[in-house]
Amino acid sequence: MICPHCAHENDTGMLYCRECRYLFLGEPIQGPIPEENERILQLALGCETLYNGECDLPYFREWLRDFTADQERREQEIVIVFASVPVGLEEDFQEEVDIGFQGVKACKEALANLAQYDPTFSPWSSMTQELYLFYKGTWAVKEAMRINRRNRDRPLWF
User: Is 0.90 surpassed by the pTM of this model?
Assistant: First the structure.
């Protein structure tokens, strides 16, 4: 697989470029995955190990349970941040809260669907679709954080 972003040659079955971190999901993703989204690459690598036969389905599901538990801890931290919006300012924070919760929901859905994945019944493309959904969810959470930082930097009277 030749990376369309950097032209590095990767092995068949790879979900991201080992040189520039570009995701190979058949969806238009704007460049390589930044360092802050390492979770996406961890999940892609876990999916690759199953696809390439480096692990069996029970091992993958156990690994995914651990990954999901860690993700749930991270999501709980996000929920706590969103729940700490000062009284009276809920409307000011509504956009970022909505985007953040949409992201958390997408990540949960992707991981729940991956937990049901069975290569004997599901095509490989369904796994990459869930990985893309996880990517979009993670992106939404990061966008909510960017909105939050941008809004916090503005004076309260605007």
Answer: no
